[in-house]
Amino acid sequence: MKRSDRLISLTRYFLERPHELTRLSTFAEKYDASKSSISEDVNIIHTMFEKEGIGSLHRYSGSSGGVSYIPYFNKTDSNAFIEGLCNTLEDPDRILPGGYLYMSDLLGDPQTIRQIGKAFVSAFYEQQIEAVVTVETKGIPLAYAVAAQLGVPVVIIRRNMQITEGPSVSINYVSGRSKRIQTMVLPKRFLNEGMNVCIIDDFMKGGGTVSGMVSLLEDEFHAKVVGIGVLAEAQDEENEQMIEEYTSLIKVSHLEMDKQRITVKKGNYFSDK
Amino acid sequence: MKRSDRLISLTRYFLERPHELTRLSTFAEKYDASKSSISEDVNIIHTMFEKEGIGSLHRYSGSSGGVSYIPYFNKTDSNAFIEGLCNTLEDPDRILPGGYLYMSDLLGDPQTIRQIGKAFVSAFYEQQIEAVVTVETKGIPLAYAVAAQLGVPVVIIRRNMQITEGPSVSINYVSGRSKRIQTMVLPKRFLNEGMNVCIIDDFMKGGGTVSGMVSLLEDEFHAKVVGIGVLAEAQDEENEQMIEEYTSLIKVSHLEMDKQRITVKKGNYFSDK
Questions:
Q1: What is the count of structural domains for chain A?
Q2: Which residue, B70, B101, B119, sits at the end of a domain?
Q3: pLDDT tens string B159-174
Q4: Same domain, A239 and A263
Q5: Can you tell me the distance from the alpha carbon of A15 to that of B33, in angstroms, rounded to the nearest whole number?
Q6: How much of chain B, in percent, has pLDDT values that exceed 70?
Q7: Distance separating alpha carbons of residues B84 and B115, to the nearest angstrom
Q8: Which of A133, A180, A228, B61 is the most buried (most CB within 10 A)?
Q9: Do both B234 and B143 map to the same domain?
Q10: Which of A7, A40, A152 to mutate to test the interface with B (most CBs of B within 10 A)?
Q11: Is B100 on the interface with A (CB under 8 A)?
């Protein structure tokens, strides 16, 4: 096999398996090439990945050594994407009764999800995250987009006890704005005790749901929540957020039903520093 | 930029954007190269993609012409993956009360989801699918994995009316085995009338849920269901499936709680023909 062919094949191999360690000898066998040729291929791809701002190939030496693709993404690249998203979301047709914003069409587009996932990875790639946690339903694709790049599993908190998921821990919490008591359930098998996790969700209004997730994870599973990422937060002068430290990609404010006006700006990830 | 660098960059570009058409002149500008060089690069990548069984690069000529990556995957590759999955699932620890099988850990792993998505794409890539439809919750990551490769959006049917999704159509249906009446809701904005869709779900027992989805889609949205894919079907001598034509990747049978025994075999996609 020629070098050009190997480069194409290896590029795909690494992109599909973030954080997975593969030995050089595995590649040498697969491509019937010398380890030194493979090593050169890896260098070429590493340099190109760094140049394109999508991460790097890490080498680990020793008997359990090998190569692993560690993605990280450029915050500046995400910035342009999020600006476009803000413009799309400012359409008054998106305002729904109760001060909600229709975003489901965007969340249904795999390409948009991929870009949002990259933005979160650029925010969290330095944390030692062992699982990505979300609550059903709309945060699920975002959680998978992040988890795929971090090479970790997704854990989905449910709204009801599920017969197909075995013994579970349930908690009640008060939702931020409506002050209603709600339930969330996490099956015991889903998460080992004491893991480092990050929380991903689509929308945060009062922060009640996220705060409930933190309680469930930290108090019941002794997990450490090392990051909280929300796609959109609702900014509201009257109500304080129940959560202090989080990363938001966009900020929705001035949702005025009467005037059919809405303001969508970049979230604290892009604007606070 | 050298050819080797362009090949790495282009490989990533195509893999990330299935079914998206890009003009050769766009690449020529991006890489500061002649169109004939780009054209050669495209040929090299096309040949390699075909060799690796992951699809091909299609050329479209004329004024709106360009190149587009059309993924298809080898059924034989999926076959080996599904055999491994069957072995994993036959573990008696996975049997839950009521004859359910614990699969959530596998569904939480992005790499497993990617492989399952590929198997469905290998089954459905010849259909002209315009959207992938699933019902919350566990089919969602599978639906995204399929939709990303087909280059189409995902539509999620909900169990309850959602305030954040606007006017919706609801139907009641009878779940296959428990004979309980249940509800499903599809917001009107989610789907245009008359689209070709495929249904993806994680588990099919009596087929009641899938049959409800077909009614909702065909009767209320005048959609055409051109494919139905379920990860696992429960095989049961006593009850007939309510759905006749579908593609299953695995078949679960002999779920005997007392004996703690379970049989997991390949589904009809691999075994019927």
A1: 2
A2: B70
A3: 988 877 889 999 999 8
A4: yes
A5: 25
A6: 95
A7: 12
A8: A133
A9: yes
A10: A7
A11: yes
